[in-house]
Amino acid sequence: MTDLLLFQLRRVGRNKQYLFFTVLLPALFTIFFTRVFGAQAGSSAQYQEWARGYLVSMMAYGALGAALGATIRLAFDRRSGWLRQLRVTPFPPGAVLAVDVLVGALLVLPSLVVVALVGRFVNDVQLGLGTWIALVGVLWIGAAAFVALGLALGLALDEQAAGGAIGILSTVLAALGGLWVPVAVFPDGLAAVARAMPSYQYAQLGRDLVAGGAPAATSLVAVAGYGLAFAVLALAVGRRRPLHAVAG
User: Fold this and answer.
1) Is 76 exposed, middle or buried (0-12, 13-18, 19+ CB in 10 A)?
2) Taking the CB of residue 156, how many other CB atoms lie within 10 A of it?
């Protein structure tokens, strides 16, 4: 299983488009949004507030994109025949799915770490070492909800639908979840929708940390609830379309 995990990590990690959209693009967005809106800050404290807010938003954006992209690719693996090839290996279907989950979880880390480094050394975001570690850790754990969502979609969709789903879903989660534009500027009705989005609650975990507190219980419960619902959905899809059916 370790050999399969390492192989899958290398396989996905070599995908240049994946690295661009999940690591480089969020880092560039972090610089862009911070410079544009941070330039309007009237004081150093106000700049730090803007910079921290966009840091967390872009960490969340990159992480959910990485989680979705790494697991939705099951649909592409079915089309390419890769899953069919795995059927003749000693790895049982459960181990193959477990590896995909681990790959999705591990590939979230590069995005989180790179955006955090950009925030610290390019945008001069000031946080204590413990807060930086907690921020990366909390967002990494919280990204498990989107790994489960990507797994469900990867099992359910064919290659063509999966390709569209990655772009559409990432855009909807980012736009309606307040990751690109602060929810504070949304109309009241749209703001209510935004606060119900899993991406908003996920990013809120980080926002609470950089504000100097602990993640709110409401956000923790919301992210855990979404994660559980997505995991149940993935299991339900997996029962209807087990791995041998997906592969074959």
Assistant:
1) middle
2) 21
Look at residue 248 in the predicted model and tell me its pLDDT: 42
Amino acid present at 148 = A
Residues 6+ apart with CB under 8 A from 90: none
Which residue is associated with the tokens 């489960």?
Answer: 148
The residue whose two tokens read 């390492």 is 6
Q: Which tens digit of pLDDT belongs to each residue from 1-19?
A: 677 788 778 877 778 888 8
User: What mean pLDDT comes out for the span 216-231?
Assistant: 97
Look at the block and give the residue holding tokens 């193959």.
96
d(CA 150, CA 148): 5
Query: Sign of torsion, CA 103 108 113 115?
Result: positive
Whether the Cβ atoms of residue 153 and residue 64 lie closer than 8 Å to each other: no
